[in-house]
Amino acid sequence: MAALDTVLARIDANRDAALDRLFRLVSIPSVSTDQAYAADCVRAAEFLAAELNAIGFEASTRPTRGHPMVVAHGKGARPDVPHLLFYGHYDVQPADPLALWETPPFEPRLVEAGAGTQIVGRGVSDDKGQLMTFIEAARAFKEAGELPCRVTILLEGEEESGSPSLPDFLAENKKELSADLALVCDTSMWDRDTPAVTTMLRGLVLEEAVIRGADRDLHSGMFGSAAVNPIHVLAKIIAGLHDEAGKVTLPGFYDGVAELPEEVAEQWRGLGFDGEGFLRAVGLSVPAGERGRSVLEMLWSRPACDVNGISGGYQGEGSKTVLPAEARAKFSFRLVGQQDPQKVAESFRAYARAALPADCGIEFISHGASPALALSFNSESLSRASRALQAEWGVAPVLAGCGGSIPIVGRFKSDLKMDTLMVGFALDDDRIHSPNEKYELSSFQKGARSWARILSALAA
Ligand code: BES
Ligand code: ZN
Predict the structure, then answer these.
(1) What is the 155 CA–ligand 2 centroid distance (Å)?
(2) Which ligand lies nearest to the CA atom of residue 160 in the structure?
(3) What's the rounded mean pLDDT across residues 169-192?
(4) CATH says 4-201+374-459 is which class?
(5) Domain with CATH 3.40.630.10 in the chain
(6) % of residues, the chain, pLDDT over 90
(7) CB within 5 A of ion ligand 2: which residues?
(8) Alpha helix ranges (H) inside 90-203
(9) 203-257+303-370: CATH class
(10) Does the Cβ of 402 fall within 6 Å of ligand 1?
(11) Which regions of the chain carry the CATH code 3.30.70.360?
(12) Residue whose CA lies nearest to ligand 1 atom number 6
Protein backbone atom coordinates (compact mmCIF):
# COMPACT_ATOMS: atom_id res chain seq x y z
CA MET A 1 0.00 0.00 0.00
CA ALA A 2 1.24 3.49 -0.84
CA ALA A 3 2.56 5.50 2.08
CA LEU A 4 0.11 8.21 3.11
CA ASP A 5 2.75 10.92 2.74
CA THR A 6 3.31 9.95 -0.88
CA VAL A 7 -0.45 10.09 -1.52
CA LEU A 8 -0.77 13.52 0.11
CA ALA A 9 2.16 14.77 -1.94
CA ARG A 10 0.45 13.51 -5.13
CA ILE A 11 -2.72 15.42 -4.21
CA ASP A 12 -0.70 18.60 -3.75
CA ALA A 13 1.19 18.08 -7.01
CA ASN A 14 -2.09 17.42 -8.87
CA ARG A 15 -3.79 20.60 -7.67
CA ASP A 16 -3.94 22.53 -10.92
CA ALA A 17 -4.93 19.52 -13.00
CA ALA A 18 -7.59 18.68 -10.39
CA LEU A 19 -9.00 22.18 -10.66
CA ASP A 20 -9.11 21.82 -14.41
CA ARG A 21 -11.09 18.58 -14.06
CA LEU A 22 -13.49 20.23 -11.64
CA PHE A 23 -13.96 23.17 -14.01
CA ARG A 24 -14.82 20.79 -16.83
CA LEU A 25 -17.44 19.09 -14.66
CA VAL A 26 -18.94 22.38 -13.44
CA SER A 27 -19.18 23.58 -17.05
CA ILE A 28 -21.79 20.90 -17.73
CA PRO A 29 -25.21 22.29 -16.70
CA SER A 30 -26.55 19.08 -15.16
CA VAL A 31 -29.73 20.52 -13.68
CA SER A 32 -31.82 17.52 -12.74
CA THR A 33 -35.25 19.05 -12.21
CA ASP A 34 -35.46 20.55 -15.69
CA GLN A 35 -35.88 18.13 -18.61
CA ALA A 36 -34.24 20.67 -20.90
CA TYR A 37 -30.93 19.64 -19.29
CA ALA A 38 -31.42 15.87 -19.51
CA ALA A 39 -28.68 15.51 -22.15
CA ASP A 40 -26.31 17.51 -19.94
CA CYS A 41 -26.98 15.14 -17.06
CA VAL A 42 -25.95 12.28 -19.35
CA ARG A 43 -22.82 14.23 -20.31
CA ALA A 44 -21.88 14.81 -16.68
CA ALA A 45 -22.36 11.10 -15.91
CA GLU A 46 -20.24 10.12 -18.91
CA PHE A 47 -17.53 12.60 -17.96
CA LEU A 48 -17.31 11.11 -14.47
CA ALA A 49 -17.33 7.52 -15.70
CA ALA A 50 -14.50 8.38 -18.11
CA GLU A 51 -12.50 10.08 -15.35
CA LEU A 52 -12.92 7.05 -13.11
CA ASN A 53 -11.98 4.63 -15.88
CA ALA A 54 -8.91 6.72 -16.57
CA ILE A 55 -7.66 6.19 -13.03
CA GLY A 56 -8.21 2.46 -13.09
CA PHE A 57 -11.75 2.05 -11.79
CA GLU A 58 -14.15 -0.17 -13.66
CA ALA A 59 -16.75 2.48 -14.26
CA SER A 60 -19.93 2.74 -16.29
CA THR A 61 -23.05 4.83 -16.54
CA ARG A 62 -26.28 3.00 -15.87
CA PRO A 63 -29.58 4.09 -17.33
CA THR A 64 -32.56 4.64 -15.05
CA ARG A 65 -36.03 6.00 -15.71
CA GLY A 66 -34.51 9.37 -14.85
CA HIS A 67 -30.90 10.50 -15.15
CA PRO A 68 -28.15 7.87 -15.27
CA MET A 69 -26.18 6.56 -12.33
CA VAL A 70 -22.41 6.23 -12.38
CA VAL A 71 -21.07 3.09 -10.73
CA ALA A 72 -17.36 2.41 -10.39
CA HIS A 73 -15.39 -0.37 -8.75
CA GLY A 74 -11.85 -0.01 -7.50
CA LYS A 75 -9.85 -2.92 -6.16
CA GLY A 76 -8.16 -2.54 -2.81
CA ALA A 77 -4.71 -3.50 -1.60
CA ARG A 78 -6.05 -5.89 1.02
CA PRO A 79 -9.09 -8.14 1.24
CA ASP A 80 -9.37 -8.03 5.05
CA VAL A 81 -10.26 -4.35 5.41
CA PRO A 82 -13.65 -2.66 5.02
CA HIS A 83 -15.18 -2.28 1.57
CA LEU A 84 -16.37 1.31 1.17
CA LEU A 85 -19.21 2.75 -0.89
CA PHE A 86 -18.79 6.43 -1.73
CA TYR A 87 -21.98 8.29 -2.66
CA GLY A 88 -22.27 11.72 -4.26
CA HIS A 89 -24.45 13.54 -6.77
CA TYR A 90 -23.50 15.19 -10.04
CA ASP A 91 -26.80 17.01 -10.51
CA VAL A 92 -27.21 20.62 -9.49
CA GLN A 93 -30.02 23.00 -8.63
CA PRO A 94 -31.34 25.35 -11.32
CA ALA A 95 -29.12 28.42 -11.67
CA ASP A 96 -31.89 31.00 -11.65
CA PRO A 97 -32.32 33.86 -10.93
CA LEU A 98 -29.68 34.22 -13.63
CA ALA A 99 -29.57 38.01 -13.43
CA LEU A 100 -28.06 37.80 -9.95
CA TRP A 101 -24.96 35.88 -11.06
CA GLU A 102 -21.89 38.07 -11.43
CA THR A 103 -20.59 35.74 -14.14
CA PRO A 104 -22.37 32.89 -15.96
CA PRO A 105 -23.14 29.98 -13.58
CA PHE A 106 -21.67 27.29 -15.82
CA GLU A 107 -18.45 29.13 -16.60
CA PRO A 108 -16.47 28.40 -13.44
CA ARG A 109 -13.73 30.76 -12.39
CA LEU A 110 -11.41 31.52 -9.48
CA VAL A 111 -12.04 34.58 -7.37
CA GLU A 112 -9.65 36.03 -4.81
CA ALA A 113 -11.70 36.76 -1.70
CA GLY A 114 -10.51 38.12 1.63
CA ALA A 115 -10.17 34.77 3.35
CA GLY A 116 -8.77 32.83 0.39
CA THR A 117 -9.39 31.72 -3.17
CA GLN A 118 -12.90 30.68 -4.15
CA ILE A 119 -14.13 28.59 -7.04
CA VAL A 120 -17.41 30.04 -8.32
CA GLY A 121 -20.07 28.22 -10.34
CA ARG A 122 -23.36 26.38 -9.97
CA GLY A 123 -22.85 23.05 -8.21
CA VAL A 124 -19.23 23.73 -7.35
CA SER A 125 -19.96 23.18 -3.65
CA ASP A 126 -23.15 21.13 -3.96
CA ASP A 127 -21.93 18.60 -4.87
CA LYS A 128 -19.39 18.59 -7.72
CA GLY A 129 -16.42 20.02 -5.84
CA GLN A 130 -17.21 17.81 -2.88
CA LEU A 131 -17.48 14.57 -4.85
CA MET A 132 -14.29 15.46 -6.71
CA THR A 133 -12.41 15.68 -3.39
CA PHE A 134 -12.99 11.97 -3.03
CA ILE A 135 -12.14 11.14 -6.63
CA GLU A 136 -8.92 13.17 -6.38
CA ALA A 137 -7.97 11.25 -3.24
CA ALA A 138 -8.65 7.98 -5.04
CA ARG A 139 -6.60 9.17 -8.02
CA ALA A 140 -3.64 9.97 -5.78
CA PHE A 141 -3.74 6.50 -4.21
CA LYS A 142 -3.85 4.93 -7.67
CA GLU A 143 -0.95 7.05 -8.89
CA ALA A 144 1.09 6.20 -5.81
CA GLY A 145 0.25 2.50 -5.92
CA GLU A 146 -3.24 1.25 -5.19
CA LEU A 147 -6.31 2.01 -3.13
CA PRO A 148 -5.92 1.00 0.52
CA CYS A 149 -9.23 -0.84 0.44
CA ARG A 150 -11.90 -1.83 -2.01
CA VAL A 151 -13.94 1.21 -3.04
CA THR A 152 -17.21 1.37 -4.92
CA ILE A 153 -18.37 4.75 -6.13
CA LEU A 154 -22.03 5.56 -6.74
CA LEU A 155 -22.88 8.95 -8.23
CA GLU A 156 -26.44 9.89 -8.99
CA GLY A 157 -27.99 12.66 -11.03
CA GLU A 158 -31.26 13.17 -9.19
CA GLU A 159 -30.42 14.08 -5.60
CA GLU A 160 -31.63 17.63 -6.04
CA SER A 161 -34.97 16.30 -7.18
CA GLY A 162 -35.43 13.83 -4.34
CA SER A 163 -33.56 10.77 -5.72
CA PRO A 164 -36.64 9.20 -7.35
CA SER A 165 -34.72 6.46 -9.20
CA LEU A 166 -32.23 5.53 -6.52
CA PRO A 167 -34.31 3.34 -4.17
CA ASP A 168 -35.14 0.95 -7.04
CA PHE A 169 -31.56 1.09 -8.30
CA LEU A 170 -30.27 0.13 -4.84
CA ALA A 171 -32.76 -2.74 -4.67
CA GLU A 172 -31.93 -4.01 -8.16
CA ASN A 173 -28.17 -3.81 -7.56
CA LYS A 174 -28.09 -4.69 -3.91
CA LYS A 175 -25.23 -7.14 -4.13
CA GLU A 176 -23.07 -4.88 -6.24
CA LEU A 177 -23.61 -1.80 -4.09
CA SER A 178 -23.53 -3.30 -0.61
CA ALA A 179 -20.35 -2.49 1.27
CA ASP A 180 -19.26 -2.31 4.89
CA LEU A 181 -19.62 1.42 5.20
CA ALA A 182 -21.04 4.24 3.08
CA LEU A 183 -19.17 7.54 2.77
CA VAL A 184 -20.93 10.73 1.78
CA CYS A 185 -19.33 14.08 0.95
CA ASP A 186 -22.32 16.43 0.65
CA THR A 187 -22.33 18.30 3.97
CA SER A 188 -20.57 21.25 5.60
CA MET A 189 -17.66 22.01 7.87
CA TRP A 190 -18.36 23.64 11.22
CA ASP A 191 -16.44 26.75 10.13
CA ARG A 192 -13.59 27.42 7.73
CA ASP A 193 -10.99 26.05 10.16
CA THR A 194 -12.96 23.28 11.82
CA PRO A 195 -14.05 20.10 10.08
CA ALA A 196 -17.28 18.31 10.93
CA VAL A 197 -18.70 14.83 10.86
CA THR A 198 -22.43 15.15 10.30
CA THR A 199 -24.48 12.69 12.32
CA MET A 200 -28.01 13.91 11.62
CA LEU A 201 -29.98 14.91 8.56
CA ARG A 202 -33.46 16.32 8.44
CA GLY A 203 -36.10 14.45 6.47
CA LEU A 204 -38.11 16.16 3.79
CA VAL A 205 -41.67 16.14 2.48
CA LEU A 206 -42.24 18.11 -0.71
CA GLU A 207 -45.83 18.90 -1.64
CA GLU A 208 -47.26 21.09 -4.34
CA ALA A 209 -50.86 22.30 -4.08
CA VAL A 210 -52.98 23.68 -6.91
CA ILE A 211 -56.21 25.42 -5.95
CA ARG A 212 -58.80 26.00 -8.64
CA GLY A 213 -61.92 28.15 -8.55
CA ALA A 214 -63.84 29.38 -11.60
CA ASP A 215 -63.35 27.53 -14.87
CA ARG A 216 -61.48 30.52 -16.38
CA ASP A 217 -59.69 33.73 -15.43
CA LEU A 218 -62.30 36.46 -14.82
CA HIS A 219 -62.52 40.25 -15.00
CA SER A 220 -61.99 41.37 -11.42
CA GLY A 221 -64.51 44.18 -11.77
CA MET A 222 -67.22 42.05 -13.29
CA PHE A 223 -66.69 39.16 -10.89
CA GLY A 224 -64.67 40.56 -7.94
CA SER A 225 -66.12 39.55 -4.54
CA ALA A 226 -68.87 37.50 -6.20
CA ALA A 227 -66.41 34.88 -7.37
CA VAL A 228 -64.06 32.97 -5.07
CA ASN A 229 -60.37 33.96 -5.46
CA PRO A 230 -58.02 30.95 -5.29
CA ILE A 231 -55.10 33.17 -4.31
CA HIS A 232 -56.97 34.33 -1.21
CA VAL A 233 -57.78 30.74 -0.35
CA LEU A 234 -54.15 29.72 -0.77
CA ALA A 235 -52.95 32.68 1.31
CA LYS A 236 -55.27 31.69 4.14
CA ILE A 237 -54.06 28.10 4.02
CA ILE A 238 -50.45 29.25 4.17
CA ALA A 239 -51.14 31.72 6.97
CA GLY A 240 -52.79 29.01 9.05
CA LEU A 241 -49.79 26.69 8.96
CA HIS A 242 -48.01 28.45 11.83
CA ASP A 243 -49.29 29.84 15.10
CA GLU A 244 -48.15 33.02 16.84
CA ALA A 245 -45.33 31.19 18.57
CA GLY A 246 -43.94 29.87 15.30
CA LYS A 247 -45.20 26.32 15.80
CA VAL A 248 -46.67 24.35 12.94
CA THR A 249 -50.39 23.87 13.50
CA LEU A 250 -50.97 20.66 11.50
CA PRO A 251 -52.57 17.99 13.70
CA GLY A 252 -50.02 15.36 14.70
CA PHE A 253 -47.14 17.27 13.11
CA TYR A 254 -44.94 17.01 16.22
CA ASP A 255 -45.58 13.29 16.72
CA GLY A 256 -42.13 11.71 16.83
CA VAL A 257 -40.31 14.97 17.61
CA ALA A 258 -38.39 14.45 20.85
CA GLU A 259 -36.43 16.85 23.00
CA LEU A 260 -32.68 16.45 22.57
CA PRO A 261 -30.94 14.06 24.97
CA GLU A 262 -29.26 16.25 27.60
CA GLU A 263 -25.74 15.19 26.61
CA VAL A 264 -26.34 16.23 23.00
CA ALA A 265 -27.94 19.51 24.06
CA GLU A 266 -24.92 20.19 26.23
CA GLN A 267 -22.49 19.35 23.44
CA TRP A 268 -24.33 21.72 21.11
CA ARG A 269 -24.31 24.52 23.68
CA GLY A 270 -20.57 23.94 24.00
CA LEU A 271 -20.15 24.69 20.29
CA GLY A 272 -20.89 28.35 20.98
CA PHE A 273 -22.85 28.74 17.74
CA ASP A 274 -23.39 32.41 16.93
CA GLY A 275 -27.04 32.41 15.84
CA GLU A 276 -27.13 36.18 15.52
CA GLY A 277 -24.02 36.23 13.33
CA PHE A 278 -25.43 33.40 11.23
CA LEU A 279 -28.52 35.49 10.48
CA ARG A 280 -26.57 38.74 10.14
CA ALA A 281 -24.49 37.17 7.37
CA VAL A 282 -27.64 36.99 5.20
CA GLY A 283 -29.08 40.34 6.18
CA LEU A 284 -31.39 39.18 8.98
CA SER A 285 -31.56 39.84 12.69
CA VAL A 286 -34.42 37.98 14.37
CA PRO A 287 -34.89 34.17 14.36
CA ALA A 288 -38.25 33.48 12.72
CA GLY A 289 -38.88 29.96 14.02
CA GLU A 290 -40.40 28.48 17.17
CA ARG A 291 -40.22 30.86 20.07
CA GLY A 292 -37.90 29.74 22.87
CA ARG A 293 -35.61 27.68 20.62
CA SER A 294 -32.03 28.53 19.71
CA VAL A 295 -31.14 29.05 16.05
CA LEU A 296 -29.09 25.84 16.09
CA GLU A 297 -32.09 23.90 17.39
CA MET A 298 -34.29 25.45 14.73
CA LEU A 299 -31.86 24.22 12.08
CA TRP A 300 -30.79 20.84 13.42
CA SER A 301 -33.36 19.37 15.79
CA ARG A 302 -36.71 21.02 15.12
CA PRO A 303 -38.96 20.47 12.11
CA ALA A 304 -39.85 23.26 9.72
CA CYS A 305 -42.59 24.09 7.27
CA ASP A 306 -41.92 26.51 4.43
CA VAL A 307 -43.41 27.71 1.19
CA ASN A 308 -40.73 27.50 -1.50
CA GLY A 309 -42.66 29.08 -4.32
CA ILE A 310 -46.04 30.58 -5.03
CA SER A 311 -47.77 31.56 -8.23
CA GLY A 312 -51.11 32.55 -9.67
CA GLY A 313 -52.72 35.42 -11.49
CA TYR A 314 -50.93 38.08 -13.47
CA GLN A 315 -47.15 38.23 -13.01
CA GLY A 316 -46.24 40.45 -15.95
CA GLU A 317 -45.35 44.11 -16.08
CA GLY A 318 -47.88 46.73 -15.04
CA SER A 319 -51.29 45.66 -13.81
CA LYS A 320 -54.07 43.47 -15.05
CA THR A 321 -57.47 43.38 -13.40
CA VAL A 322 -57.88 39.66 -13.35
CA LEU A 323 -59.40 37.22 -10.92
CA PRO A 324 -57.32 34.09 -11.41
CA ALA A 325 -58.81 30.68 -11.92
CA GLU A 326 -55.93 29.00 -10.14
CA ALA A 327 -53.21 29.48 -7.53
CA ARG A 328 -50.37 27.17 -6.64
CA ALA A 329 -47.63 26.82 -4.09
CA LYS A 330 -44.75 24.48 -3.34
CA PHE A 331 -44.31 23.43 0.27
CA SER A 332 -41.41 21.81 2.06
CA PHE A 333 -41.56 20.15 5.46
CA ARG A 334 -38.20 19.43 7.10
CA LEU A 335 -38.56 16.52 9.48
CA VAL A 336 -36.64 15.40 12.54
CA GLY A 337 -36.62 12.41 14.88
CA GLN A 338 -39.31 9.86 14.15
CA GLN A 339 -41.72 12.10 12.25
CA ASP A 340 -43.50 10.00 9.65
CA PRO A 341 -43.25 11.59 6.16
CA GLN A 342 -46.49 9.96 4.98
CA LYS A 343 -48.44 11.15 8.00
CA VAL A 344 -47.11 14.68 7.63
CA ALA A 345 -48.15 14.75 3.97
CA GLU A 346 -51.60 13.38 4.84
CA SER A 347 -52.09 15.83 7.67
CA PHE A 348 -51.17 18.72 5.38
CA ARG A 349 -53.54 17.54 2.68
CA ALA A 350 -56.40 17.02 5.13
CA TYR A 351 -55.86 20.49 6.60
CA ALA A 352 -55.78 22.17 3.19
CA ARG A 353 -58.87 20.30 1.98
CA ALA A 354 -60.79 21.24 5.09
CA ALA A 355 -59.91 24.90 4.54
CA LEU A 356 -61.47 25.05 1.07
CA PRO A 357 -64.59 27.16 0.61
CA ALA A 358 -67.42 26.23 -1.74
CA ASP A 359 -66.55 26.03 -5.44
CA CYS A 360 -62.83 25.44 -4.84
CA GLY A 361 -60.97 22.29 -5.68
CA ILE A 362 -57.45 21.31 -4.76
CA GLU A 363 -54.94 19.00 -6.36
CA PHE A 364 -51.80 17.77 -4.63
CA ILE A 365 -48.58 16.70 -6.30
CA SER A 366 -45.95 14.92 -4.24
CA HIS A 367 -42.33 15.68 -5.08
CA GLY A 368 -40.88 13.19 -2.64
CA ALA A 369 -40.74 12.22 1.00
CA SER A 370 -37.90 10.95 3.15
CA PRO A 371 -37.54 10.51 6.92
CA ALA A 372 -34.96 12.17 9.17
CA LEU A 373 -31.76 10.34 9.95
CA ALA A 374 -29.65 10.06 13.07
CA LEU A 375 -26.35 8.15 12.98
CA SER A 376 -24.45 6.75 15.92
CA PHE A 377 -22.18 9.14 17.81
CA ASN A 378 -19.67 6.49 18.74
CA SER A 379 -18.61 4.01 16.14
CA GLU A 380 -15.16 2.76 15.28
CA SER A 381 -15.30 4.36 11.83
CA LEU A 382 -16.32 7.71 13.31
CA SER A 383 -13.37 7.68 15.74
CA ARG A 384 -10.96 6.78 12.95
CA ALA A 385 -12.35 9.48 10.67
CA SER A 386 -12.19 12.01 13.52
CA ARG A 387 -8.52 11.31 14.13
CA ALA A 388 -7.80 11.55 10.41
CA LEU A 389 -9.60 14.90 10.15
CA GLN A 390 -7.77 16.20 13.19
CA ALA A 391 -4.46 15.28 11.57
CA GLU A 392 -5.35 17.34 8.48
CA TRP A 393 -7.02 20.35 10.09
CA GLY A 394 -5.22 20.50 13.42
CA VAL A 395 -8.48 20.46 15.36
CA ALA A 396 -10.94 17.70 16.15
CA PRO A 397 -14.11 17.68 14.05
CA VAL A 398 -17.41 18.87 15.47
CA LEU A 399 -20.16 16.26 15.61
CA ALA A 400 -22.74 18.25 13.72
CA GLY A 401 -26.39 18.12 12.82
CA CYS A 402 -27.61 19.40 9.50
CA GLY A 403 -30.64 21.38 8.44
CA GLY A 404 -30.57 19.97 4.92
CA SER A 405 -31.56 16.59 3.59
CA ILE A 406 -29.88 13.89 1.53
CA PRO A 407 -32.88 11.71 0.81
CA ILE A 408 -31.11 8.42 0.05
CA VAL A 409 -28.85 8.13 3.09
CA GLY A 410 -31.55 6.49 5.26
CA ARG A 411 -31.85 3.72 2.66
CA PHE A 412 -28.21 2.77 3.01
CA LYS A 413 -29.10 1.48 6.47
CA SER A 414 -32.65 0.23 5.89
CA ASP A 415 -32.08 -1.42 2.50
CA LEU A 416 -28.34 -2.17 2.31
CA LYS A 417 -27.63 -2.56 6.07
CA MET A 418 -24.69 -0.15 5.92
CA ASP A 419 -23.73 2.58 8.35
CA THR A 420 -22.83 5.93 6.83
CA LEU A 421 -20.06 8.39 7.55
CA MET A 422 -20.84 11.93 6.37
CA VAL A 423 -17.90 14.28 6.02
CA GLY A 424 -18.08 17.40 3.87
CA PHE A 425 -16.07 20.54 3.34
CA ALA A 426 -18.72 23.05 2.31
CA LEU A 427 -19.07 26.28 4.29
CA ASP A 428 -22.26 27.96 5.45
CA ASP A 429 -21.51 30.90 3.16
CA ASP A 430 -21.05 28.77 0.00
CA ARG A 431 -24.41 30.05 -1.33
CA ILE A 432 -25.53 26.56 -2.30
CA HIS A 433 -28.82 26.70 -4.26
CA SER A 434 -28.27 30.50 -4.58
CA PRO A 435 -26.63 32.75 -7.17
CA ASN A 436 -22.81 32.91 -7.14
CA GLU A 437 -22.35 29.52 -5.46
CA LYS A 438 -18.72 29.00 -4.47
CA TYR A 439 -16.41 26.40 -2.96
CA GLU A 440 -13.24 27.36 -1.18
CA LEU A 441 -10.06 26.25 -2.89
CA SER A 442 -8.91 25.19 0.59
CA SER A 443 -12.01 22.98 0.94
CA PHE A 444 -11.22 21.37 -2.39
CA GLN A 445 -7.56 20.84 -1.61
CA LYS A 446 -7.72 19.91 2.06
CA GLY A 447 -10.91 17.96 1.39
CA ALA A 448 -9.03 15.62 -0.95
CA ARG A 449 -6.21 15.33 1.60
CA SER A 450 -8.79 14.59 4.30
CA TRP A 451 -10.28 11.73 2.30
CA ALA A 452 -6.83 10.29 1.71
CA ARG A 453 -6.26 10.29 5.46
CA ILE A 454 -9.72 8.88 6.19
CA LEU A 455 -9.34 6.05 3.65
CA SER A 456 -5.98 5.21 5.05
CA ALA A 457 -7.34 5.26 8.63
CA LEU A 458 -10.36 3.11 7.77
CA ALA A 459 -8.12 0.57 6.03
CA ALA A 460 -5.50 0.43 8.78
N1 BES B 1 -25.93 19.07 -0.06
C2 BES B 1 -27.30 19.30 0.23
C3 BES B 1 -27.66 18.97 1.67
C4 BES B 1 -27.06 19.94 2.65
C5 BES B 1 -27.61 21.21 2.73
C6 BES B 1 -26.01 19.62 3.43
C7 BES B 1 -27.07 22.14 3.60
C8 BES B 1 -25.45 20.54 4.30
C9 BES B 1 -25.98 21.81 4.39
C10 BES B 1 -28.15 18.48 -0.70
O11 BES B 1 -27.64 18.36 -1.98
C12 BES B 1 -29.47 19.16 -0.85
O13 BES B 1 -29.54 20.33 -1.10
N14 BES B 1 -30.52 18.41 -0.69
C15 BES B 1 -31.83 18.90 -0.93
C16 BES B 1 -32.69 17.70 -1.15
C17 BES B 1 -34.01 17.97 -1.81
C18 BES B 1 -33.93 18.84 -3.01
C19 BES B 1 -34.72 16.68 -2.11
C20 BES B 1 -32.30 19.74 0.23
O21 BES B 1 -31.92 19.53 1.39
O22 BES B 1 -33.08 20.68 -0.03
ZN1 ZN C 1 -25.86 18.14 -2.31
Answers:
(1) 11
(2) 1
(3) 97
(4) alpha beta
(5) 4-201+374-459
(6) 97
(7) 126-127, 186
(8) 129-144, 166-172, 174-177
(9) alpha beta
(10) yes
(11) 203-257+303-370
(12) 187
